[in-house]
Each structure stands twice: as C-alpha cells, then as structure tokens.
Write a structure and sequence with these properties.
Blueprint (H helix, E strand, L loop, with lengths): L2 E4 L9 H4 L3 H5 L8 E5 L1 H9 L4 E7 L8 H4 L6 E5 L1 H4 L11 E6 L6 H5 L4 E5 L5 H13 L4 E4 L9 H6 L9 E3 L9 H9 L3 E5 L6 E2 L3 H4 L4 E5 L8 H6 L2 E4 L11 H11 L4
Parallel strand pairs: 1-4, 3-4, 6-7, 6-11, 7-8, 9-11, 9-12, 10-12
Antiparallel strand pairs: 2-5, 3-5
Length: 275
Amino acid sequence: MANIIEINSLDQPELAVFTKLTEAQLRSKQNPEKGTFIAESTKVIGHALDAGCVPISFLMERKHIEGKAKELLSRCGDVPIYTADSDVLEKLTGFALTRGVLCAMHRPEVKSAEELCKDAHRVAILENIVDPTNVGAIIRSAAALHMDAVLLTPSCCDPLHRRAVRVSMGTVFQIPWARIGERADQWPEEGLRRLKKLGFKTAALALNSDSISIDDPRLMNEDKLAVILGTEGDGLSANTIADSDYTVLIPMSHGVDSLNVAAASAVAFWQLRRR
C-alpha cells in the first residue's frame, strides 16, 4: 500500500536527503554501506530497481502518483512518498530540471575489479575524469557499445553522482563498474599491474608521436583489452601512457586535434569492441 505523505514545506528532516545533503554527504565515503544516491525520472529509477537497488523514499508532484509513476510505485511497497503540488516543489533547487520524480536509494554493493574482469574481454578505464556529465555519457556509451565493464581510478567522479546517473539514462545500473584502487597512489602503477595479472593488454588513448591508429589490426586481435581514457584537461598521465601496451589515437581531419572525452569514448568502444 502506498505511503503518501503530503508536505507543505521542504524543511522537514526526512527531506534532507533531497534538499540539503551534498553529493559527498550522500556518498558517505567513510561508511559506504550507509551511503545513498538520488535517481531521477521513472526510467532511471526503474533501471535501478531492476538492478536490485533498494528505495528509501520518493519526492514527486502529486499528479505523478496515479500518473507516470503508478507502475513504478507498485514495485516499492510502503516506501514513503513525499508529495505536493508543483508550486511547492519548484522551490527545491534543481527540481525543475528533473522529470518530475526523485527517489533516494541505498547505494548498491560494488564488486571488486577482479570480480568484474574475471570473464570480461573489453573494459573501459576512466582515469581521473571529474565531470559527472562526461562520466555519465561514457558509461552510457560503454553499455551500448559492447564494453563488459567500467573501472574508475581513485580520483574519478562517482558514477552515482546525481548528474552522472541522469546523463547515463540509468545505464550505470546496467553495466558493472568498480574502482581500481581507493587511494590516489594505487594508480597507475598498481592498477596497471592488476590489469596485467588479469590478462589484459592496455590501450591508452593519447596524441603521442608513437601512437598507432585506432583501427590497427593488433588492437582488434587482442582477446582482453582495457581502453584507458584520460581527464578532460590534461589527458592521461605520462606514467599511464609509458606503462601501457599500446598508445592509440583516433585519426582526425579538418585540423581538429582531439574530441571531447565522451565523444572519443564512443568511437573507441565501437572500433575496439570484441569481434
């Protein structure tokens, strides 16, 4: 039975998860098992439920309870549904940017890189990418274009950042992901050693003089390949490039020297997919 709670203010303590907590507070880095995240839109929330994520509470306009969220809510038992008319909810910063339905959920347990890569043949490595929009877009491309998993270096943005989840269109719940190291000093040397031990050759996307073209047959012939993408500004670290098996570039035309990392990821994932 639906547990509908009418609100006339956004100051209620139960709504702090939607209104006051920062991304860092939601994540609860010191106690990740107690962390939460916010999913937006019925489609994204549905993907999260399909993946086994557990809802804590909803915040939505009243009209959606018997409208577009009705089927979704039928899956969630007596989880609290905080609701009001749109003029009240629009006072919530950012609410107008959503698709009308928010859900606070418990963070899922994340597997280790070794568990994810045990049977994988193509993985994406995100090195220090901090923009949640880029992380979400890359994860969406990885899910759509035949990557088996996504690994994130310690300084990379949280894939369950509210914007990353939204931009990924819920694919963050459809493709497995994990951190490859929890501390900054565990990448790249230790992380690359772990990938090698798992049987992966590494392909670093970088504009170096010794880079090979992304359509080089040697890349396609690799049974297990990890595609490494670098941060938005500086690209990959010198150590990552030096210690990778291949340095790879996407040939450009019209004097363009590079693509946005999210666009480059889509090209790379499609070209380097396992055939």
